[in-house]
Request: fold
Amino acid sequence: MSEELETIYGYDGDLQIAWDNTSLATLRTCPRKYYYTNIMGLRPAGANVHLDFGLRYHAALEAYDRRRAAGEDWNSALVNTVDELAHTTKDFKSDHKVKNRNNLLRSVLGYLDHFKNDPAETLILENGQPAVELSFRFNVDLKAPNGEPYMLAGHLDRLVKYQDRLWVMDRKTTSKSFAYDYIQTFKPSGQMCQYTWGSKVVFHPEVQGVIIDACYIAANLDEYSRFPASYTKDQLDEWFQNSLFYIKLAEQYHAANYWPQNFEACHVYQGCPFRSLCGRDPSMRDMVIKSDFVVDRWDPLLTREKKE
Reply:
């Protein structure tokens, strides 16, 4: 076992202890994909324009939220946020027809204008700080082979008070229009269930669910929509038991040192990033890894502050 694996926060060597939704979703999709992503820490070499665009979009809106919570009026917060974004994205080189610098500036400006009179107010925590870019973690009643309790973890964009109730607010960018099918992808949603459960445990038991602010980005226009995703107690309990089942399943894969492929997941959405690897003869895969991938292991306990 390499020294690098032993020092990753959310793992005990090559067994994951802290689980966020990203890790659980990858495991549910394909155990082999999970092994490559979380255990080996592989990702395709080169820039990921979709990830870069999303991180910059979220960072700009976080900066705006903090300015508003500190007392800036809408106009000043908007101008300062967009000016800062224009300055910090000079290095964002992308020839993608949608995910590029001009559209990033346009989408942030459009979002802030669309929600100019936003009734959702950022919650102020007991320590006086605005509830934006929060990380949560908590132990569950399930122990790993080393005796440590497993953990569930996650990162939230924002906690808000909206129509006299508490909600998580999650911002999404999407290339899908706001049709019925897009909204239904959050009913149910492992990510939103984990956000809701984690917020109830760590921040406030009266959190109702998640409000999703979605930005549909196209080449020449942006559209914005807001809709809630809430779940009953029984739905959340079902999600929780499902999560514990998959954590124990990962433990079994680990003990057997075998991570099976889910061949039906190879071509869904835009295709698995490891198709080129799994599509080669096993004897050739080490060579493909060295030429086409880099090591960048996902750590579910790395907070937003540390990531920056």
